Amino acid sequence: MKRYITTLALVLLAAAGFSTYYAFGSADHLPEYRLETLEGDANEAANLVLVGSYIGGKGSQPLNLTVHGSEYRSRKSLYESYITDAREWFYEQEGMRELIEKYPAFMRGKAEIGSFYQDQDWLAYAEIPYNSATSDPEGTIEVEMLNRSTGKVADYSIALTPFSQQGMREHATIYDVQLQADGLHVMVNQYETDNRPSGAKQYFDYIIDSDSGQLIKRIALEFLDAAGTKLTPLSSAATQNDYTAPNDYFVLSIVTQEQTGEANSSSVPTNVPAELYVYSYKSGITQRLPDEMQKLDARRMGGRYISGGDLYFTNYNETLIAVSRYSLETGERRGETWSLLSSQIGEGELQSFFMNGERLYVLLGKEDARTVVVMNAATGEPLYKGSVTAEGSEEERQIALSDMALNNMSIKE
Question: Whole-model pTM?
Answer without folding.
Answer: 0.79
